[in-house]
Amino acid sequence: MNGVSETKSVMSYLKWALISTVIGLALGIALGWQTTGTLSGTLTVFFIVAVLAVLEISLSFDNAIVNANKLKDMTPVWQHRFLTWGIIIAVFGMRIVFPLLIVVIAANVGPIDAMIMAAARPEEYARIMHDAHLPIAAFGGTFLMMVALTYFFDHEKDIHWVEWLESRMARYATIKGVEIAFVLALILGFSRLLEGAEQEAFVYSAIYGLLTFLLVEVLGGFLDKTQETTKAAAQGGLGAFLYLEVLDASFSFDGVIGAFALSQNLFVIAIGLGIGAMYVRSMTIMLVERGTLAEYRFLEHGAFYAILILSVIMFCQTLVHIPEVITGLGGAGLIGIALWSSIRWNRSEANGVTQS
Predict the structure, then answer these.
(1) CA end-to-end span of the chain, whole Å?
(2) Which of 53, 232, 272, 319 could be 49's S-S partner, Cβ–Cβ 3.0 to 4.6 Å?
(3) Digit-coded pLDDT (tens) for 233-259
(4) Does any domain span residue 286?
(5) Taking the CB of residue 224, how many other CB atoms lie within 10 A of it?
């Protein structure tokens, strides 16, 4: 597989993402003309679609790296299923169905009424989405924080990027439930900064996020254990598939909610974020086939640090507004530093081998 992948260019991996970009931007132009009827309005919608796509890509660098880390241990069958079914769920489920579902629950209306509201009363639709931001940020932030801390609190982890910090975290990983205790303490700390209904919504949503992570972990472990004795071909990878879907959903929460700051049109948001999701898929495939995570020693570390910071930012967003651009650039910057550190480490190793 590596021998074949070496002959593939980066552009070949990005083929479907580029095709989706052309189609998405064309749909943006058509939608802009239909909704505004003016050239300036059409160009505005086109620009928003492009910005949303770039924003989603910048927010999803770490998502692609974590996906690749999980996918490399899955069977080829389940890799294919995630990269086909998973992208359908990511694009249509999280970018279209999820925002509609929030409005259905929050406004107590039917799915058809929510769709009509999105098309005819976008201001009201955006208001409901904005009001739902706090519980979504608490849920997603807790889940992502557990994902990141579980990576660092691992006593078998022997490769450290920030040595003084990660070596201690790996050492304390032998204390059972240390990451859960840390997250619960942080939840209680943030909840004290809120009052009344907001405090209650934050705590309940965060606890549900923690429970969701634990349930996915338990289910994944159960399926992995079951496949050792029964139907390995059918079940090998289902637990990881579910884990990746919930993880992708948690990554998407921030982008979907934040997108309403740029546009109140559900369909404009779906097109822009859908383009970005296709690039995540392409980057994931490239990382898996090229073995990039193994080649760049600290790239994975940078991704999990970015996830940890994103989770804290999502908690902070329940108190103050933090622009999504800062979130995206921060994550991309961390991964860039990790890549640079990996390249330096590879060069130093190569020089050491040469000298010896």
Answers:
(1) 32
(2) 272
(3) 444 467 777 777 777 776 666 666 666
(4) yes
(5) 15
